[in-house]
Structure prediction request, 737 residues.
Amino acid sequence: MMIRYKTSNTFPKGGIHPPEYKLTQNVPIKPLPIPKSVMIPISQHIGAVAAPVVAKGDYVKTGQLIASANGFVSSNIHSSVSGIVSKIDTIIDASGYRQNAIFIDVQGDEWVDSIDRSADVISKIELAPEQIIEKCKESGIVGLGGATFPSHVKLAVPKDKKCNTIIINGVECEPYLTSDHRLMLEKGEEILIGIAILMKALDVEKAMVGIESNKPDAVEHLKELAKRFPGISIHSLTVKYPQGAEKQLIKTLTGREVPSGKLPIDVNAVVHNVATAYAVYEAVQKNKPLIERVVTVTGKSLPAPGNYLVRIGSPVSSLIEAAGGLPDDTGKIVSGGPMMGKALQNTGVPASKGMSGIVLFRASESTRVEKIACIRCAKCVTACPMNLEPHLLATLSMKAMFERAEDEKVTDCIECGSCSYTCPAGRPSLDYIRLGKSTVMKMIRERNIK
Amino acid sequence: MSSTIIVTIISLSLLAAVSAVILYFVAQKFHVNEDPRIDDVQAALPAANCGGCGFAGCRNFAEALVAAETFDGLNCPVGGSEVMKLIAGMLGKAADETEPLTAVLLCNGTPEFRPRTTRYDGVESCRIQHNLYIGETNCSYGCLGNGDCVKACKFGAIKIDNSTKLPVIDDSKCVACGACVKSCPRNLIELRKKEKKDRKIYVACSNCDKGAIAIKACKAACIACSKCLKVCEFGAITIEKNLAHIDAKKCKLCRKCVAECSTKSILEFNFPPRKPKVETESITING
Prediction:
């Protein structure tokens, strides 16, 4: 007798339900006007910083390589505009740290000739798997969900491991953000071709696209289109944060659990974002490097929140300007979603590859609640999607008991912030856990060197 | 009633006597021969248990001293030479002369010099803030002012000055145990040679950015202009990574560099006022 398990459409343990505030889900993607000058950071990815290959005074075209990858886990950076390189100088970027950036004064918009700028959808995949990976590497494709891990590294599966399922992340579980949602509605076919390209590169037959059920139009649209693509299935998932986290999404869609300290490939899965799939399509079929991305600019006080196709390196101020200007009551500007995003230092920072949204909070929304002593309610334990004990990890970090924190698997924390969000005592558990996690990671690195 | 009391007293006394006999033999059997000198040495140590010597506490340090063949690398910063010589005499060994040290803060980024550009409302911890971003000002090297060093100091020698938002180190209380040095995520605290009358001259800046960037972030930043380097007659000043550093061992406290410094990032403390003919006036911040 065959036992049929009830297939659940969300991950089993933890998670929270923050209010969604998807203010911009019906606003079509609009290209942002090219700014007068751009600042392109040379490190927009995880891994080694790219090395600039242009110098002050050089004329660059749109799509031209301006900084090349420095090692395997690194990524190429291309010019998003045409113009003169005015200087290479340090800036404070969206991550809040100082780093080098290439400043370009815009002159017209002259593209590199090899880029196909027509609107035609090319569905025939001509490149071989190795060529696809090479193309992704050349085009500087990184994970556009926010982590910005170089995509070619994920595609180059080690010989002793085998991928049998590609998981495409269209969950967009962060409140406010709608950039992936709009992209799925407007570029659905391109995304599916992109997925087919990824399937070819990894030599797999099966791809699963996970979309939360608060985007029924995107689910329907992709389901309709997917009929023409063998092997690609579209799944509507129950809304729950952090469903879009890699390990949670794998669990939801395949039932496989990535063991502690392992990668998705250890359970034969590779996860890519829908926006990455679109970028792969553009790189492989249209020969277009990653020089623009969709950014949601939103906030309750913002006059005209919207989704914008932004050239990398455009200042955030130009995005806010396009959305109606900075409201007077703004207290905090967050790059990324409100749960995992990072507050910006100022509006002069440039848009980078990992910037999925700009969320403006009112001063009243952005203040922290006063923290009181832990009341031992264990809500954080219930909310933790990684089966950790956030209150314990926070205390261990606070008391500098890092060896114990390592035993308690602090390194498994995905920093989703569910613990801090759910805490009725207003305890900033994640702040402490992050400190513990980074210290333990450092300890492990030092041990490995020895 | 009275019989109950008598029975209780007798039975408990018997129990106590039997236990005492058992404990006596157990103590004989498991007796650990410990060097009696360890107790003496421990008594001579300051009992601060600060960890400044690199050991977990005074007891561990005493054990190490008794076991050590020479006193190389063993030093109690709290007790200093005096205590080490006393212990050396007790153990029949020689102790090196060590110079007393004191902690100084290599940052003078007061709100006046270093304007605040953002507001941090997270946990009050320098380490956490340092992990998050460059801090409330545009200087990615300067003091964050959340007082990790204050919490680390077991001698109450550090407190945050409310007007400058910088920690102030009380020389009379500082024993140079180095706990604050370890606690600072930006390595802003240096242990320097303690001079007569607690006189100090040092470069109060840690900004390794190029001069133009450093001065934009903080008006009191060292811009590595090397004026101090030229004026120093004792070769005490070196410039590395866009930052000047005065070697306390070579410095003769002549104060020429203080007068020469173009951004007033070299500070002097506890000196008598300069003679009026010297035009440049010294700045004294935080004490």
Notes: DSSP finds ten helices and eight strands in chain B. Strands of chain B lie at 101-105, 158-160, 167-169, 189-193, 200-203, 237-240, 243-246, 266-269. The two ends of chain B are 76 Å apart (CA to CA). The longest helix of chain B spans residues 2-29.
